[in-house]
Each structure stands twice: as structure tokens, then as C-alpha cells.
Amino acid sequence: MSINPLITTYLTLAEIPQIHHHLSAPAAPKQLLRDTNMVILLSFEDCSHMKMIKRLAQSFLISGCLGVLVAVALYILGSFPYTQHFATSAGLILCPGMILGLAEPTTTAEMMFLLAIVLGSNFILYGIGGLFLYGAWAWFRRRSTL
Predict the structure, then answer these.
(1) Cβ–Cβ under 8 Å, residues 77 and 87
(2) Does one domain contain both 30 and 89?
(3) Are residues 37 and 58 in the same domain?
(4) Contact at 8 Å (CB) between 98 and 74?
(5) Are 74 and 90 within 8 A, CB to CB?
(6) What's the pLDDT at 13?
């Protein structure tokens, strides 16, 4: 068995033969090797919990990026006079942080600060919504296969 490159530990030259002995043993556990002086954590790629956490993180990031795109699209739509009414009414529902635009920032730094708050809050808001939707989808999918 070869050592996975994702092993994160500090080894001395005297400990390498001990690790090779543990890895070549037929009854070596896959996730955790314990020795008197060290604990070596191996990659958890096969663990179903890590796969679920990876999928949750992906759904959070994808949904959060979608929220940022919605906010940017509403800002662009708000710049045209014929779609400004739609952007202001939809902005309160789709991007609640846009209400901060009523502060009417005057300098570029203030505008960037408010834009960062609006985009960040939309990222977090849509990311949490994506987590809930993914959790519901995974739960119903699991229930339908039982």
C-alpha cells in the first residue's frame, strides 16, 4: 500500500519504518493509525461524511455566487430608466441589502463599502438558502430510495 500524498504530519527519519510497518500490516485501520509518539490522519476521501460536507460546501458556494449574480443583475437593470421600477420593486425581495443604497454614498470608497456589504450579504443569504434546499433535496431523495 502506498502512502497517500494527502497525509499531513511531520515525521522524523526514525519514524518512517514504523509507518511502513503499520501500512503494510493486513489489519491496519484505514482512517487512523495510532503509535506511541504520533497520530497520523489519513485522507478521508472514502468517508461518506466528508463527501456530504463537500457537497454542502459546493451547494453553498454555487448558491452564494448565484446571489451575487442576482444583485449585480439588479444593479444593471436599475441603471436603465425603463427597467428601474422593476429593479427597485424586485430588489427588495431578491436583494434586501439594496436598501442600503438609500444612504446615497458620495465618495467611491463609500460606494465600494456599501457594494461589498450588499454583495456579501446576498452571498450569505443565498448560500444559506442553497444549503436548506440541498438538505431538503437530499432528505427526500434518501426517503424515496428506502
Answers:
(1) yes
(2) no
(3) no
(4) yes
(5) yes
(6) 47
pLDDT of residue 101: 77
Whole-prediction pTM value? 0.63
The three three-digit cell numbers of residue 6, written as one number: 494527502
User: Which residues form the domain of 66?
Assistant: 48-145
Helices (H), 1-107: 16-24, 48-78, 84-94
What tens digit of pLDDT does each residue of 6-65 get? 444 444 445 555 555 555 555 444 444 444 444 444 444 457 788 888 999 999 999 999
At 123, which helix (H) or strand (E)?
A: helix 108-145
Burial environment of residue 127 by CB neighbours within 10 A (0 to 12, 13 to 18, 19 or more): buried
> Please, which residues have CB within 8 angstroms of residue 80's CB and are 6 or more apart in sequence?
none
Same domain, 57 and 121: yes
Q: Are 39 and 7 in contact (CB under 8 A)?
A: no
Residue 138 has pLDDT above 90, yes or no: no
CA angle at residue 126 from 121 to 131, to 5 degrees? 125
Residues belonging to the chain: 146
**Structural domain count, the chain:** 2
Q: Is the pLDDT of residue 125 over 90?
A: yes
